[in-house]
Amino acid sequence: MNPPQVSNRDRIAVVGAGYFAAHHLEAWRACGAEVVGLCDIDLQRGESLAARFGILNTSTDAAQMFDDVRPALVDVALPPAAQRDVVMAALERRIPTICQKPFGRDWAEATAMTEAATRLRTPLVVHENFRFTPWFRECRRLIDAGHFGRLHGASFRLRPGDGQGPDAYLNRQPYFQTMPQLLVRETAVHFIDTFRYLLGEVRAVTARLRRLNPVIAGEDAALIVFDFDDDRTALFDGNRLNDHAAHDPRRTMGEMWLEGEAGVLRLDGDARLWWKAHGQPEQLHTYIGGDAGSAKGAFGGAVTALQAHVLAHLRAGTALENAAADYLSNLRVQAAIYHSHASGVRVVMADFDPSGP
Ligand SMILES: NC(=O)c1ccc[n+]([C@@H]2O[C@H](COP(=O)([O-])OP(=O)(O)OC[C@H]3O[C@@H](n4cnc5c(N)ncnc54)[C@H](O)[C@@H]3O)[C@@H](O)[C@H]2O)c1
User: Fold this and answer.
1) How far apart, in Å, are the Cα atoms of 191 and each of 23, 236, 290?
2) Beta bridge partners of 151
3) Which residue, judged by its Cα, is nearest atom 39 of ligand 1?
4) Is the CB of 78 under 6 A from ligand 1?
5) What Cα–Cα distance (Å) separates residue 335 from each residue in 14, 72, 184, 331, 346?
6) Is the separation of the CB atoms in 58 and 68 below 8 Å?
7) Tens digit of pLDDT per residue, the chain (357 long)?
8) What is 120-142 written as a DSSP string?
9) Rg of the chain over all Cα atoms, to the nearest angstrom
10) 41 lines ligand 1 (CB under 6 A)
11) Torsions phi, psi of 84, nearest 5?
């Protein structure tokens, strides 16, 4: 078998030319990487996006494109139902691959892709970008610097305000209307990952889910309580109907409070961080990237940061975050949340089998 391809390290092939692929292409441009091929089963979509980004090679068949352009990295921006076959085709060619979340149709597909990556010794990373936002990076930096003293909890209030009425999501992500599981699988999963990034591994979850907008199939509101080691807890309180005070409610998607014995750090809707030392007035906390406007790309440059992080791994062997095997932890917690809602019980992760009925 051929060794993993390491030459021409910045030659990228992108699969999928829909709404979010445009953000990936902007990010590759910002990274200085060359996109050498773009594939979409909808030829016109592929060609129109390729023309916008000056990509010379377009295709409707991902595996054929991999053989034609021999990329160093495959970037899969497909819906979950289409991900497994394309990811497998890339891994079988031993091409390092990034796969968008949700990672496959279900747990079985996610584990199959992960096992293939391990067996073929080929990097597979899930495109889970929220932890790469400059504001969550700064939270992590402050935790590591001991800023909070003993950290004991977080609360995120998600209010993007884009889910009201019969036309909810139709202009941007129409598939949101028909997904049988929406808020947790599509959106709260970002915060499962972010909470794990900030607070450590999840030990138990308790969830109550609701559907507020009757035109959609899945849930669009959730209250989730997370337990972590050292008696840390987090609350995710989310709905997609209401908005919050922000110039763009989808920039941070909501507001967060991160608390330790020394004080409270608050993220506002304009991506500002405010530090309130215990017993003192709240003060603006400036940070690198905190003034990032939309010019930095989606979510304060998080898409670019994630993609740059994978390129750095290929170029210099730096450690990967959210490699597929690690990402399965998020999917286990996600499954436990749905199970908690359905059963009405607090689910202890050590006792939970996500492949169960
Ligand atoms: N990480 C994030 O922040 C974030 C944000 C938005 C979307 N997403 C995820 O990105 C993925 C794509 O979302 P989107 O909004 O761009 O979807 P989309 O429907 O706009 O685009 C998907 C594209 O894939 C094409 N396609 C489907 N099957 C294919 C195949 N086998 N080969 C080639 N092309 C194929 C379709 O023709 C379509 O153009 C979803 O999984 C979504 O959840 C992630």
Assistant:
1) 20, 8, 19
2) 260
3) 18
4) yes
5) 29, 33, 9, 6, 13
6) no
7) 333 333 366 899 999 999 999 999 999 999 999 999 999 999 999 999 999 999 999 999 999 999 999 999 999 999 999 999 999 999 999 999 999 999 999 999 999 999 999 999 999 999 999 999 999 999 999 999 999 999 999 999 999 999 999 999 999 999 999 999 999 999 999 999 999 999 999 999 999 999 999 999 999 999 999 999 999 999 999 999 999 999 999 999 999 999 999 999 999 999 999 999 999 999 999 998 877 554 466 678 999 999 999 999 999 999 999 999 999 999 999 999 999 999 999 999 999 999 976
8) TT--EEEE--GGGSHHHHHHHHH
9) 20
10) yes
11) -55, -50
Smallest CA separation from ligand 1 atom 15, residue: 19
Tokens of 263: 């004080």
Task: Tell me how far the alpha carbon of residue 81 lies from the centroid of ligand 1, in angstroms.
Answer: 10
Structure-block tokens of residue 229: 């080691």
Strands 124-127 and 151-158: unpaired
What spacing in Å lies between the alpha carbon of 114 and ligand 1's midpoint? 20
Ligand 1 atom at shortest distance from the alpha carbon of 20: 16
How is residue 177 written in tokens?
A: 């209307």
Residue nearest to ligand 1 atom 34, measured at CA: 40
Please state, in angstroms and rounded to a whole number, the distance separating the CA atoms of residues 172 and 166. Answer: 14
Supply the angle between the helices 324-343 and 189-199 in degrees, to the nearest 10. Answer: 110
Read off the tokens for 133.
Answer: 């936002």
> For residue 87, how far is its CA from the centre of ligand 1 (angstroms)?
13
SS3 per residue for 138-150: HHHHHHHCCCCCC
Cβ-in-10-Å burial (0-12, 13-18, 19+) of 171 comes to exposed
Q: How far is the CA of 78 from the centre of ligand 1 (A)?
A: 3
Quote the distance between the C-alpha of residue 55 and its chain's center. Answer: 26
CB of 24 within 6 A of ligand 1: the answer is: no
- Give, using CA atoms, the residue closest to atom 8 of ligand 1: 20
